[in-house]
Amino acid sequence: MAKQQISLTVNGDLYELLVSDQQTLLDIIRTEIGLTGTKRGCTTGACGVCTVHNADGEAVLSCLTHALEWDQESITTIEGLESDGELDAIQKAFVEYHALQCGFCTPGVVMSAKAVINKYPEPTEEQINAGMAGVLCRCTGHIKVKEAIRNTHKIRARDGVKGA
Ligand code: FES
Ligand code: FES
Q1: How many Cα atoms within 13 Å fall on the side-chain side of residue 132?
Q2: Nearest atom (ligand 2) to Cα of 105
Q3: Closest ligand 2 atom to the C-alpha of 100?
């Protein structure tokens, strides 16, 4: 099938892209736009490493959605979380609470965690568990990740960054 043009805003930058109906949002983020922070894992919706945000700051599994569906839309990837060189509060929390090891899952886990914080600035355990149910980390485990999410509001208050 012939490719179709879409207009997609990524991290505030507008891209005009020719995409086929075979390409996922993940495909174009990594190969057409060149932002490789978003990882390719299972590609079946089971691991969450491909998570990005839609315009409402909600988590989206980019491996499961066709690129053509994102014409005239806006997304945020892990590269778009920092602001003027300063990490988002959730990113600082992951560093300060040692919530990563190899780092492969980290972009997707951080984006999923940020989506939780967007909805619940001081989330309960149940809200964290529900929001993080779709992401898998094979080396750090989820205890440190949850600790980082629980404490993000303190870092936001301390540093005066947006963080939510
Ligand atoms: S790569 Fe998308 S959920 Fe695993
Ligand atoms: S930090 Fe290695 S898979 Fe999560």
Answers
A1: 27
A2: 4
A3: 1
% of the chain beyond a pLDDT of 70: 97
The pTM of this model reads 0.95
For residue 98, report the distance from its CA to the centre of ligand 2, in Å: 12
Range of the domain at 94: 89-159
Furthest C-alpha separation in the chain: 53
- Structural domains of the chain, count: 2
Which pLDDT does position 160 carry in this prediction?
Answer: 81
Domain end position, chosen among 59, 80, 101? 80
d(CA 109, CA 113): 6
* Ligand 1 proximity of 41 Cβ (cutoff 6 Å): yes
30 located within any domain: yes
